[in-house]
Recover the amino acids of this structure.
């Protein structure tokens, strides 16, 4: 197998152990933890060209490149990162990390609790965006990076990027928050809650200790993912992609098996996800979304929350994204402008809904290319 | 207990048996069936003042009035129907019917299959909007009603009203379809499918024969209803009603128990529904929604589908309804106008989302009052 010339090519993750205890926002103390990390490009001598890529709900450290001898192994933001791509690895040293609590090798609910010798399961503490930012800052310490040229992310990843500007204002020069929101709405939380209840009420969840029962709450995870996809796509996209097309034949079968193409798509996505994602991590990631609210410590005043920020900002949203609509991004922009921050804002026309942030939409990638080119390293 | 003076007061349902076999759209034949019915007001001598009220997904025959010695027993459209109310029972004879396949006394999955002596369960055939209209026409025959002054419904009920105008053009003089659509979009079907999968994958569903196992798939029904509520409400309403308010205290509890008010609301609604609604009926009703597509027999041409219609139409939609948005109602209006039908269309400002059709929104009720007053009986 050959990798494309503008790909970072074959990559391999590394696992870094952090032996200093970490007290989480919840008050729970983790004595130690490990993070799975990938890097692309070279850190320059001044260590001034590092870009941290933060992942969303189901993402991980494998942002770009391919794994040897593994089919369809490209990173989740492969179209963004590489030599000559918008996040150009000839200029930048790019870091992907699987967040604490994740299920792709970093310490999370599926890991062994050193205090008990058993898997954490449901005892793994709830982790917040603020906690992640601290672990990412420790990762930067480990790599000798005083200040990131940029922290970038979409959706929940964008929230981490925003939190960086508040919690470590001197350590991040550019923040790119795409398809994000300054906090979840009741509707956002509601959809998360239905997904969580699907998992929590699955008899195979066993209160989060399903590992010990040698089962996986696939029913719940599958439903959670199906519902997730409903909120990632747009009505228009589904109309264009699936419409009322029937799966096989042109007559109704009058039953509850797959009838419409949209049903087939959702079941496929649900089944695939349930085959590899950890149910406890799904709960944890959705709760981190719910809890994200940088204004909370400032009596709900987002402008006050951003008062410490020193970074320059790139905020982007997509017209068809109803999960975190452009209106939500504008809330961020207004709070930043009120603080006289340097903000670029783009509302990008797309039909792909929330998923747009992952796609190589020409206008979107052109804007990112221009922005990254302008970053002084 | 006293009932309000503009209520129809205490009412009682009646069960009507239909002994003529009914061949459904699916090809399945029901040898006999029963329908639960309520009526309010008096049928006039000319039998020209009858109004059929069609119910939506979780509705039934108990449209208006109260049951004696039963708390909170008012009908689901109590605010609409009564002496002096928009659908004035001093003028009209109003009929409510629990649809075939329902779970409120009409023959449905929970009924005994006379051919086996056991409950139908999953063997109850899928019923379509067209099938319902036929059963409603037979009900009209039974009551001696040649022609309805009006057929009215919201959501799935509105779809039945529309189907009436096509299938029995000489038997309905006015059709009122509120918060409806001419067919479901892929997004609509997708949400139905997630809800169905929640039920179908509940271990207590037992392939639809849970009755024989003395269990009920409450987990699946609960999730289905929670998701339903997410699509009935609007983002704005949830923001206004729940926001990010925490349930008890003002600090995060860092867990997966109820944290936000919206979670509490959804769980409450889900639990309540799972306590009384039949899982097989839920599947059936959502499938009837999916299958509704009067244009299907006319190569997708809605205008052609309405060519036979003779009724006058009242079409209404609500600005905050994203399940069946005003744009979907306008598709109906355009097809009717192209057929030179007499159409009143109202796009009503509301924040309550799809649920608006059930609420006594002043502008909405004023329009309905005026429309019903104008109907010649």
């Amino acid at each position: 197998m050959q990798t494309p010339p503008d790909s970072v090519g074959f990559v391999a993750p590394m696992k870094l152990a952090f032996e200093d205890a970490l007290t989480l926002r919840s008050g729970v103390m983790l004595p130690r933890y490990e993070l799975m990390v990938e890097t692309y490009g070279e850190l320059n001598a001044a260590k001034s060209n590092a870009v941290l890529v933060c992942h969303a709900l189901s993402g991980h450290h494998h942002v770009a490149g391919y794994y040897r001898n593994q089919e369809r192994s490209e990173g989740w933001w492969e179209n963004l990162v590489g030599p000559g791509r918008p996040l150009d690895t000839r200029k930048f040293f790019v870091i992907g990390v699987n967040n604490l609590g994740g299920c792709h090798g970093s310490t999370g609910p599926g890991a062994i609790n050193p205090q008990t010798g058993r898997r954490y399961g449901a005892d793994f503490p709830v982790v917040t965006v603020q906690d992640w930012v601290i672990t990412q800052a420790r990762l930067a310490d480990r790599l000798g990076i005083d200040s990131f040229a940029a922290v970038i992310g979409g959706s929940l990843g964008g929230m981490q990027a925003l939190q960086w500007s508040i919690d470590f204002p001197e350590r991040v020069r550019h923040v790119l928050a795409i398809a994000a929101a300054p906090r979840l709405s009741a509707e956002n939380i509601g959809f998360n809650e239905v997904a969580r209840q699907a998992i929590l009420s699955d008899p195979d969840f066993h209160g989060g200790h399903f590992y010990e029962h040698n089962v996986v709450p696939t029913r719940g995870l599958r439903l959670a993912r199906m519902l997730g996809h409903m909120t990632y796509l747009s009505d228009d996209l589904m109309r264009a992609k699936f419409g009322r097309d029937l799966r096989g034949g042109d007559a109704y079968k009058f039953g509850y098996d797959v009838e419409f193409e949209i049903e087939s798509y959702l079941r496929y996505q649900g089944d695939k996800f349930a085959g590899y994602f950890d149910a406890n991590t799904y709960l944890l990631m959705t709760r981190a979304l719910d809890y994200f609210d940088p204004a909370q410590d400032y009596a709900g005043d987002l402008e006050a929350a951003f008062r410490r920020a020193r970074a320059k900002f790139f905020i982007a949203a997509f017209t068809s994204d109803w999960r975190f609509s452009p209106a939500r991004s504008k809330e961020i922009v207004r709070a930043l402008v009120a603080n006289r921050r340097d903000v670029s804002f783009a509302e990008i026309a797309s039909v792909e809904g929330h998923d747009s942030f992952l796609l190589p939409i020409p206008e979107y990638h052109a804007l990112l290319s221009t922005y990254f080119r302008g970053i002084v390293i």
